[in-house]
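USER: Please consider what follows.
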Amino acid sequence: MLYVGAGGLAAQLFEDIVRSNQQDVVFWSETETSNSFIKERYPIISTDEQVIDYFNNVSRSFVLCVGDTEKRKKVVERFINLGGRPVTYISPFSVISQYGVKVGHGSMILSDVEMEPGVIIGEQCLLNRRSQYGHGCKLGAHCEVGPHALISAEAEIGEGCLVGLKSVILPRVKIGNNVIISAGSVVSRVIPDNAVVSGVPAVIRFYKKK
C-alpha cells in the first residue's frame, strides 16, 4: 500500500501499520521527513515518476496521510491524475459497528475511534483518534474531527466542517457547511453555514468569507 505523506498524520498511522504487520508498505513525501522511524523501516518515494511506476506495477490504491483539508483535496486530485485511486482507511484498532455504518470513499478513521450503528460518514473525511460517534449521526464530505471529540446521536454536520479537539456536538443538533467548531466547545443548537463558534455553550463568534 502507498501512504501519501510522511508527516504527523503518517506518524499516527505508523504504529497501526507495524502492529497489524502490513506488508509491502511504501510512503511518499516530496520533502525530507522528520520522522526517522518511518524512513528507517519503510521505503519513501518522492517523484511523480516513482508514483506512476508504483501505480502501474504494484497497485493503484493509495491512502492519503495529509492532515490539512485544503491540501488533502489538492493532493488527492494530483494522485488521481497520476493514475491512482484513494481508498478508505479504517484502523483495525477502532471499534466500528457492523450495523448500518457507511464510510465515504477516501476517508480515514484513526485508531481508538468508537462508532455506533447507523453512522454515515462522507467522502474524504478525517476522523482523529479517540473521537466518538453516536448512533445515526451524519457527517458530510471533507470534514475533519479532532481527537476526543464527541458527535452525539443523530447530530448532522455539513460538508467541509472542522470539529475541534474535545468538542461535543449534542444529540440531533444540525450544523451547516464549512463551519469551524473551536476546541472544547459544546454545541447545543443549530449552526448556520460558514460560522466559527466556540464556548460552553458554543456561540457564533464570526462568519468566514465565502
Remarks:
- The CA atoms of residues 143 and 160 lie 5 Å apart.
- Helices lie at 8-19, 36-41, 48-57, 69-81.
- The chain has two domains: 2-87, 90-207.
- The mean pLDDT is 94.
